[in-house]
TrEMBL record:
Keywords, comma-separated and alphabetical: FAD, Flavoprotein, NAD, NADP, Oxidoreductase, Redox-active center
All copies of domain FAD/NAD(P)-binding, residue ranges: 6-321
Gene Ontology molecular functions: monodehydroascorbate reductase (NADH) activity
Monodehydroascorbate reductase 3-like C-terminal domain mapped to chain residues: 344-431
The protein's enzyme class: oxidoreductase
Family, per entry: Belongs to the FAD-dependent oxidoreductase family.
EC number: 1.6.5.4
Name of the molecule in the record: monodehydroascorbate reductase (NADH)
Catalytic activity: 2 monodehydro-L-ascorbate radical + NADH + H(+) = 2 L-ascorbate + NAD(+)
Entry cofactors: FAD
UniProt GO cellular component terms: cytoplasm
Amino acid sequence: MAEKHFKYVIIGGGVAAGYAAREFAKHGLNPGELAIISKEAVAPYERPALSKGYLFPQGAARLPGFHVCVGSGGERLLPEWYSENGIELILSTEIVKADLASKTLTSAAGATFTYDILIIATGSTVINLSDFGTPGANANNIFYLREIDDADKLVAAIETKKNGKVVIVGGGYIGLELSAVMKMNNFDVTMVYPEPWCMPRLFTSDIAAFYEGYYANNGVKIDKGTLVVGFDSDANGDVTSVKLKDGRVLEADIVVVGVGGRPLTKLFKAQVEEEKGGIKTDGFFQTSVPGVYAVGDVATFPMKLYNDIRRVEHVDHARKSAEQAVKAIKASEEGKVIDEYDYLPYFYSRSFDLSWQFYGDNVGETVMFGDNDPASAKPKFGSYWIKDGKLLGAFLEGGSPDENKTISKLARLQPQVTDLEQLAKEGLSFASKI
């Protein structure tokens, strides 16, 4: 099989790849200089749509509607956009070997690709319960949600198992968003997670209490503080029930598992420096190997704002890190200098009629404000995180675009706070004074 050479190769075809391609095109590309190699069969798309709009009972999102870069308000990059810009989109191609010393990538089919500059944008893979040897975890109708193929299988099961029972395993993003959308599809929904409250990596117990209450009011049953230890299936191999550690058994026609992900770094093991589970980069996303960059979920990078090194799994960082890497590559070629990445952590979610945004760092004491009654017609509340007299993090449920912008500014500026009681009274109005 003939070897193909490109000046730039992006390995991975997710959100980061699409945003990197757009940035390359902005700077000007010669035809055939850039290739994106993806194991998925479709051009890069906005992955968050899969756990949100894709599963809606009415008006569901479908491609080409959510190709990148529509998620951040940009132009949609349809498959033909890549060829119009001289970019080779190599789809349904899984790279199984990467030799960074010889700058060579090898696909499962034996094709080889060489490059001058590589951007690693492989993202994450879901953690599968069969990895832990959970009995029955390979039964039919147990789903994970990462790629469009996964979503299509779940859509088919929703149709087949109409109005049935679904058990959602996990209380993070996927758990909360999928529980809401399965309820909208008229399923009997139970969420199961081992932690004492939902979204424990970000939510305080007070914030979580609102969402658990709201979900309960919308008919979602929640079993927290217990583990799934196995599954039963029928003669066809279809899942029928979920076994819990506390001895209970939940009936299930469909199970959706969302218990986290792992960055896909194994192709590069022992070839690049790693830290905190990811590939270590500088503030331009260059790795320890010159000419090799890593972006998105796989990158452990300097978080300038907190003088720390972190890895961030979120679509916002995937977009921005990809753009930063390309700017750095082009600046280096032109003998120019750009600023180091200066990222403000940002997370968000939408489910039912709810919508929250969080900016900054969730460390220190917390101050809640606003109406966090799950029974309110239009709940609107927030929380600030204060450490060493500085406001470091801000969370807001039900905020307007302007209000969300204001709390992001707060988290970036880190104002001094001396009186927590006064801050609780002022709530959102505190932000307007800064």
